[in-house]
Amino acid sequence: MITVEVRCPNCTADLSQREEESASPFFCPHCKQTFSPTQLPPEERMWYFARKKNRIGPLSWAELSALMQAGRIQQTDSILLHGTSQWLAPNEIPELVSVRQTDGEADTVETAGPSSQSPQTEREVVVTSSPAAEKTDESGLETNIVVDRPPLPQEDHFNIRDVEASFGLLGPVRQRLEYLPLEEVFFRYRVTGLSTNDEDQIDMEIDSWVTDSSGRKLAERSHPVKGRLYFGGGCYTGSSFAELRSNLSPGVYVFNVTVRDRLASVETSFQKAFKVVPLRFAIVSPRFVYRDGSDAPAGGLVGQMLGLRFRVVGFDKSTGRIQTECSLSVTDSHGTLLLRKPVCRKLASDDPAKVRDATFLHFAEFFGLNRVGDFLLCLDAKDLISGQTDRLELPIRVGSSIGVD
User: Fold this and answer.
1) E-state strands within 88-212
2) Could you give all domains of the chain from N- to C-terminal order, each with its CATH number?
3) How many other C-beta atoms can be found within 10 angstroms of the C-beta atom of residue 19?
4) How does pLDDT run across 149-165, given as a tens digit for each residue?
5) How far apart are CA 23 and CA 237, in angstroms?
6) Prediction pTM value
7) Are 126 and 146 in contact (CB under 8 A)?
8) pLDDT of residue 51
């Protein structure tokens, strides 16, 4: 089931609506008000676009406008605003008319997956470049729309699949592509169809960079990946990230990733648009880790030690001091609090040099997994100077280390 996240314009509560209810008005259970999607700020509206019998979405405005700007949307396509029932041509939507497309004709889009009488929901747009591509535009790029489906036993088509914004390589999926300055933009993905040499080793290079609305590169990194695929399959789980500067201006940016298979001399890429909002007091970049600092999943087995580290940004330094408090509480699957009182940590300083240079505060807590079940970690942060607060809730699952629930 696919859900669409929106924010109530009346009380600002975050809401979820099932995709199959896309033609229904929104109802907020918090303020008991209904509202239409046109009442939402343009950057918070969700969209779909359809070509023939295939539908892509839900897409944020940043993702839709990035596709329009790149020429991926044709005037013969249809656009639907989530929460409405009328499909429109791109030139009938004022917001899209003002989006400047890049020079050249839009790429031919091929779809993969079964056809039916109703559009099939697509989840990603993946741009693949290969010398062997049969259908290409003038730039040599072939565009594939990849349908969500179970992985095949042997995937020999070189591609990037299952792209997710997440909190680290093994952490929870990030639901909204909305970031604060000083946050980490992190994407994980699966590369399929990799070639191997006689030693069953891969040899590839991953490039990633962030561009602003004018196409200017703001951050760029490149790293080689070599190693043996012990379990075969020609697939590899990769990740790319960028840390956002403290002075980054609010707006829409694009995260770009290109993977090159050096053995086969082919490459594949993806792009994801994301939004940067003004800095505020918040808990950001949570990451589950083991004792050695390596990434850990959101949970584990009874008997393991698990750590959670995170940053606090946007704290008040106007008085020349820092006074911030963070607390951790835990609930079970029924919402019952499991600690008599939250575990609290304070970070304070009145050292002028430290206060001046501080851009974020780092907190970490380690805990033993002593019980099987589903739990919720509740982080609360408070700026004791300004009175601002923030809360972050992270689900974790603990399993049995001896195969017994």
Assistant:
1) 109-111, 120-122, 124-129, 141-146, 159-165, 178-179, 184-192, 201-211
2) 1-107 (no CATH), 150-279 (2.60.40.3880), 282-399 (2.60.40.3880)
3) 15
4) 344 344 558 999 999 99
5) 37
6) 0.61
7) yes
8) 78
